[in-house]
Amino acid sequence: MFKRAGLIVLFVSATLYWLGFSMLRPMVALYFNAEGYSLALVGALMALHAFIPVLFAMPAGQIIDRIGPRKAVFVGSAVMVISGLLYVLGGMFSWIVPILIGQVLNGLGSLLSWGALQASAGQLARSAPKGNGSHTLLSNFAFVNSLAQFGGPLLGGLLSDFGNYTLVFIVFALFSVVSVAFSFLIPASNKEGGALTDVSFNLWKSYGSGVTLMKQNRSFTMALVFNGVLFVLVDIKGTFFPIYLSNIGYSNTQVGTMLSVGAVASVVIRPFVGMLIGRLGHRLIMVGSVWIGSACLIALMFEPGLWIITAVVFAWGACAGINQPMALIMVARTVPSERQGMGMSLRTMANRVVQVTNPVVIGGLSTAIGLTYGFGLIALFLLIFSAFVQKSLKEEPDAIEQEMEEEDGGHPHERKPLPVTIAPGSAHKLTK
């Protein structure tokens, strides 16, 4: 049985994280654009937020598994406070270096904080009653996050229009401070007594442990692939779509409002994702989402009017909104409880890989052929890739759906663990 108070704290902490993240990311892109940087350089600067975290995702996963979500959220949020102060310093004096350092630290802090919040939700989901109980919990977890993703862009647009970008950075720092306070209330896990010095001793072995998890757990690897493909759409919406709207004459408040329309679609769709998985299967939902998102990118090539853009953003938000609950459910169901920290961190790493490559690729394409045609080319790549994945899945059994059906057919505690090899010297610590 779940402790209601612990769930509320977990949901509130995730809301704070996403409110700050979804407010900050599009405004940072607009800040760089307002400073006069080219789209290629803006893409490179935005990718900096994710580049370093890609390198440290596996160690972060091991840290979360060892010290527990509570301590990991505290450390991650504290790092985000420092990054927020650097954003403020750079915004006040128009210094680019503090903002770039803030981008790196924010990426590292969010890697720990968000990874730990996901791991905690995954652990709770695996102890849920059999059937769709865990699906519902994770769908509701993603639903609460989507509420913050709705308010974040709108709040950022209002603050930047009626104040300035520095005000956005100050509010982000305050959100991070509140997240530090809430970290003390997150339910403790069985690993909460671990020490950070234990982690550092086997830090490098975490890479081998993460690679082993992906090599020996095909279901989990497939979940990461699907998650990464859909996250391309999510990242474009948060990074280059605001610039697209700004370039065709929309104010920052209008940009934030438009992004919030997409977030409304996420709010609407996410509570039903668990039910849709049971009815339609994950394959149809995810491939269909890629096709709908690609159609939205193609529609933007023609620079339609306000109401058509609004409809496109709503459809885009719905298909992009499916990604988080779908990925959380698949990772939670294909990775053992004691490895949820590593599993969720690798999911975050897949997102960060997209956040590194996506801005650079689209920024380069946009500089060469224009942003609107760049959208069309990315849509074409997504359609080709989704067709290839769909063909591959038809040629062999769907391991993810088999795994989830087996999970739903029995009690979670009766489930046999997946054949994952733990790095030498780590097994005795994971069983404490």
In words, what does this structure look like?
- With 432 residues, the protein is mainly α.
- It has one domain: Up-down Bundle (Growth Hormone, Chain: A), CATH 1.20.1250.
- It has 18 helices and no strands.
- It has helices at residues 4-34, 39-67, 69-93, 96-126, 133-162, 165-183, 196-201, 205-216, 218-247, 252-269, 273-280, 282-300, 306-321, 323-334, 340-369, 371-394, 399-408, 427-430.
- The longest helix has 31 residues, at 4-34.
- Residues 193-201 and 407-432 have low confidence and may be disordered.
Concise structural overview:
The chain is an all-alpha fold and 432 residues long. 82% of the residues lie in helices and 0% in strands. The protein has one domain (4-185, 216-411): Up-down Bundle (Growth Hormone, Chain: A), CATH 1.20.1250.20.
Q: How would the blueprint of this fold be written?
A:
Layout (H helix, E strand, L loop, with lengths): L3 H31 L4 H29 L1 H25 L2 H31 L6 H30 L2 H19 L12 H6 L3 H12 L1 H30 L4 H18 L3 H8 L1 H19 L5 H16 L1 H12 L5 H30 L1 H24 L4 H10 L18 H4 L2
Helix pairs in contact: 1-2, 1-4, 1-5, 1-6, 1-9, 2-3, 2-4, 2-8, 2-15, 3-4, 3-6, 4-5, 4-14, 4-15, 5-6, 5-10, 5-14, 9-10, 9-12, 9-13, 9-14, 9-15, 10-13, 11-12, 12-13, 12-16, 14-15, 15-16
Largest sheet: none
**Class per helix and strand makeup:** mainly alpha
Helix content: over 70%
Over the alpha carbons, how many angstroms does the gyration radius reach?
20 Å
Name the CATH superfamily assignment: MFS general substrate transporter like domains
Any idea how many domains? 1
> Which architecture would the CATH scheme give at its second level?
Up-down Bundle
H/E element string?
Answer: HHHHHHHHHHHHHHHHHH
Mean pLDDT: 79
CATH topology: Growth Hormone, Chain: A
Number of strands: 0
Share of residues in strands? under 5%
Give the helix tally.
Answer: 18
Identify low-pLDDT runs: 193-201, 407-432
Through-space gap between termini: 23 Å
CATH class: Mainly Alpha
Overall geometry comes to globular
